[in-house]
Design brief:
Blueprint: H1 2-14, E1 41-43, H2 57-61, E2 67-73, E3 79-87, H3 96-100, E4 106-108, E5 123-125, H4 126-130
Antiparallel strand pairs: 1-4, 2-3, 3-5
The structure holds iron/sulfur cluster (2 copies).
Length: about 130
């Protein structure tokens, strides 16, 4: 029994030594998310517009039903999302929307500091997603 206690305590004390801790002094120190981290979405822009062609695949696959798309046609006869928004309060960050997009118009960034005070601030419109 004493061996087990000693073993447990040695592990505890080892984690107190500098360089052995897995926690950081957030927000002063920030960890870099992994390359596969799924954070805030971003609509990919092209030269004069967004890459999205308003095909409705992402709102269709979204399990949380938090993507709103309204398609329209521009002067060149190209389809574009007149309205595109994501309700981050409902999003579960599964990444299905990114996988479903046929033109790679949507990606997920490493941005994870998404706390806010008002519900309206969690509605990410096209303009905010293009930033
Ligand atoms: S990450 Fe998942 S839940 Fe969030 S918008 Fe995309 S498909 Fe929907
Ligand atoms: S799947 Fe891609 S192209 Fe289609 S509506 Fe979504 S972001 Fe736009």
């Amino acid at each position: 029994m004493f061996t087990a206690i000693a073993k447990g305590l040695s592990i505890t004390f080892k984690h107190m030594l500098p360089g052995h801790s897995t926690t950081v002094q957030y927000p002063t120190v920030k960890l870099k998310p992994s390359d596969r981290f799924r954070g805030l979405h971003r609509l990919v822009p092209t030269q004069d517009r967004e890459k999205c062609v308003a095909c409705y695949l992402c709102p269709t696959v979204c399990p949380a039903k938090c993507i709103t798309v309204e398609a329209a046609e521009n002067a060149k006869g190209e389809k574009y999302p007149r309205v595109y928004s994501i309700d981050l309060l409902r999003c579960i960050f599964c990444g299905y929307c990114v996988e479903a997009c046929p033109v790679e118009a949507l990606e997920m960034t490493a941005e994870y500091e998404l706390a806010n005070y008002r519900r309206a601030d969690f509605e990410f419109t096209k303009e905010r997603l293009l930033r």
